[in-house]
Design brief:
- This protein is about 30% helix and about 25% strand.
- It has helices at about 40-45, 65-70, 85-100, 115, 145-150, 155-165, 185-190, 245-250, and strands at about 15-20, 25-30, 55-60, 75-80, 105-110, 125-130, 170-180, 195-205, 215-220, 225-230, 230-235.
- The strands form two sheets. Strands 3, 4, 5, 6, 7, 8, 9, 10 and 11 form a nine-stranded mixed β-sheet that branches. A two-stranded antiparallel sheet has the order 1-2.
Length: about 250
């Protein structure tokens, strides 16, 4: 049953409470900062966790990925690391509102120092929905919440992959969503840090359009063998979600 929206948590100016339509889970968001999109939903579906796994989401933002992962696997243990204290505070209040603090914890910290914040080789799974654009792609402007979420201002792709690999147990799994135009760089960096690409799925807005997202799984110390899954199509003719996307959203 969904939460009673008449009994809202302490919302700050500009915030709203969104029902995730999954086991009564809700999320506090501030539209003027940055709201989660389909990429976070697809990542949480693509990532595989088992009961008892210790999982870390790097650059967790408002905590959407660990919250959705908990919804799929209440027996897991989830952490989220976010560099912006006000965003991390918003995520913590969502955790408190959902009463899932026994399984989900949000910490404030820099991805570039993640291996100093957490013990090395301590996580079974690491996930990330990082900024897609380098500072040279488009106009960054002020270093506000949206710019930090979209551009590599606080963290480069190499920082993310280096720290993720260091935090994973041998054989641990890394899951990331990114843009296809950076696939060559992604694979080069993963192999540089001994994080073997094992599974990839391209995401296309329509069946006749080129992909605009890619989901990637890597294994620390894994053997070389990459499985390329059939593309995931988001919209069918008429602009409605495909059956697979509807199942992902409402599973």
């Amino acid at each position: 049953m969904s939460k009673d929206f008449a009994k809202k948590p302490d919302l700050l100016p500009g915030e709203r409470l969104d029902d995730l339509q999954r086991d009564g889970l809700c999320l506090i968001q501030n539209p003027s900062w940055f709201c989660f999109g389909i990429d976070a939903v697809l990542l949480s579906h693509f990532a595989e966790t088992k009961e008892g796994d210790l999982c870390l989401d790097l650059g967790t933002g408002n905590g959407i990925v660990p919250t959705l992962l908990y919804g799929r696997n209440p027996g897991g243990r989830f952490r989220g690391l976010e560099i912006q204290e006000d965003v991390a505070d918003m995520a913590r209040r969502s955790v408190e509102w959902n009463d899932i603090g026994h399984a989900v914890e949000i910490l404030t910290g820099d991805i570039r120092e993640a291996c100093q914040i957490f013990p090395k080789a301590s996580f079974d799974v690491v996930t990330s929905n990082p900024p897609y654009m380098t500072e040279s792609h488009g106009l960054v402007g002020d270093q506000n919440h949206k710019a930090i979420a979209r551009h590599e201002i606080m963290c480069k792709l190499e920082d993310l992959i280096r720290e993720a690999t260091g935090l994973l147990k041998p054989g641990g799994h890394f899951f990331m969503v990114h843009r296809p135009f950076r696939l060559a760089e992604i694979f080069d960096l993963m192999r540089k840090y001994k994080l073997e690409p094992k599974r990839m799925r391209l995401v296309c807005p329509y069946v006749d359009k080129e992909p605009n997202l890619v989901l990637v799984e890597g294994v620390r110390g894994g053997r070389a063998r990459l499985k390329v899954e059939a593309p995931l199509i988001v919209y069918q003719e008429g602009g409605q979600y495909t059956e697979e996307i509807r199942k992902i959203y409402y599973e």
